[in-house]
Automatic annotation (TrEMBL):
InterPro entries: His_Pase_superF_clade-1, His_PPase_superfam, PGM_Phosphatase. It comes from Stylosanthes scabra. This is Phosphoglycerate mutase-like protein 1. CDD domains: HP_PGM_like (cd07067). It comes from the Eukaryota. Signal peptide: none annotated. SUPFAM superfamilies: Phosphoglycerate mutase-like (SSF53254). Belongs to the phosphoglycerate mutase family.
């Protein structure tokens, strides 16, 4: 299953002014209060329909808004003082005024650079250091993040075809995982460009559905089949 992050402060700013995305004030944009409400609604949905019990692994883009979304939707309940397990998210991460989130009774969450948003130029798509994130999200697994600093981000914007190629590389890596029920929490641009590479042999209506942009905090179920 694939999930786009909930509403971030950059989404609101860009709706008012398309050039706002170039502002350093939006560096590694966090969720808005509405975004957290979207997270809570999706959390209730995945619990009510049983999805939360089936998910074996959550893969998340290592940016603040996606990790907030991932732990809010798929994480444990409110953290209990004295618990021996590290929390998924500390209190008030990203000025969220959100309480600590427990890592109990939830699937492991793994940060993966390959499913990041289109890289470069925009401060909102640049990540913090790995060590900063580890202090914010103690129970997220950052072992696949090779560099403390963000060496992926450049002053030049990644092209759509480059995002699509990175998306295919991500899917090839995903095939190497043993888990069968996996949730991927990522970004609108990454998901759109990755999925647009598929469905060319399908009915136009199916292709259109595949290539429809994700709304904030939208979840879609995707079944991948190896035709080889």
């Amino acid at each position: 299953m694939q999930v786009r992050h909930a509403q971030g402060v950059h989404n609101v700013a860009e709706e008012k002014n398309p050039n706002a995305c170039f502002s350093n004030d939006l560096f590694d944009a966090q969720l808005t209060p509405l975004g957290w409400n979207q997270v809570e609604n999706l959390r209730k949905h995945v619990k009510a329909c049983g999805l939360s019990r089936r998910i074996e692994l959550v893969i998340v883009s290592p940016l603040l808004r996606t990790m907030q979304t991932a732990v809010g939707v798929f994480g444990g309940e409110a953290y209990v003082d004295g618990s021996k397990e590290p929390p998924l998210m500390m209190e008030n991460v990203g000025d969220s005024n959100h309480p600590v989130i427990s890592s109990l009774n939830c699937p492991p969450i793994l940060a993966v650079e390959l499913c990041r948003e289109k890289i470069g130029l925009l401060p909102c798509d640049k990540r913090r250091t790995k060590s900063e994130y580890q202090s914010m999200f103690p129970a997220i697994d950052f072992s696949l993040i090779e560099s403390d600093e963000d060496i992926w981000w450049t002053p030049y914007r990644e092209k759509s075809e480059e995002v699509a190629a990175r998306g295919l590389k991500f899917l090839e890596w995903l095939w190497t995982r043993q888990e069968k029920e996996i949730a991927v929490v990522s970004h609108g641009g990454f998901l759109y460009n990755t999925l647009s590479a598929f469905g060319n042999d399908c009915h136009p209506n199916v292709k259109n559905d595949i290539c429809t942009l994700f709304a904030n905090c939208e979840l879609r179920s995707v079944i991948t089949v190896d035709r080889g």
